[in-house]
């Protein structure tokens, strides 16, 4: 985390070591692969409550992610207030109506067809929590001096990956919703002009009748995503 005046390198001994034998590493890697393969983006949520402490632990995991120059250029707003969720849903559906009625190309709409998306976003009010992820475009010191953040999209993307993995590890589900533009989110959540909302994650338990699109289970084979040089 950036602090004015702290510009020298101070090394610490590696505080944690989790390394294991190669055969154990392989077993653990495969087990985690299989576990993450059970993660699904869900649009139908149960109204079952999720304790705030669970959300706090999940966000703390995201906050441990690496970032450019360790500036940690992110903020997370956790919303359970029904009135705020209703306001977010209304704004999101307004944007979706514009998107589906001419804002998107035919190619884009065709790509979305197998996913089953549409204008209605009931998950934004049904899910017990909404996590709004903000990217901090620049930071400010205690005296108001502005400083530059580095690799902001990459850093926030890594933190979001940590967040989604932590949600799954807690036995919950989420849905990735990218606000566009939904500029009202920053003032609604009391965030400064330096921050831009990049994603909303409804978080909770899946409904009893929850479904996922069949196409979502079609993942590229390892041979299509990995090139090895030995």
From TrEMBL:
<keyword id="KW-0560">Oxidoreductase</keyword>
<feature type="domain" description="Nitroreductase">
    <location>
        <begin position="38"/>
        <end position="205"/>
    </location>
</feature>
<dbReference type="InterPro" id="IPR050627">
    <property type="entry name" value="Nitroreductase/BluB"/>
</dbReference>
<keyword id="KW-0288">FMN</keyword>
<dbReference type="GO" id="GO:0016491">
    <property type="term" value="F:oxidoreductase activity"/>
</dbReference>
<protein>
    <submittedName>
        <fullName>Nitroreductase family protein</fullName>
    </submittedName>
</protein>
<dbReference type="Pfam" id="PF00881">
    <property type="entry name" value="Nitroreductase"/>
</dbReference>
<keyword id="KW-0285">Flavoprotein</keyword>
<dbReference type="InterPro" id="IPR029479">
    <property type="entry name" value="Nitroreductase"/>
</dbReference>
<dbReference type="InterPro" id="IPR000415">
    <property type="entry name" value="Nitroreductase-like"/>
</dbReference>
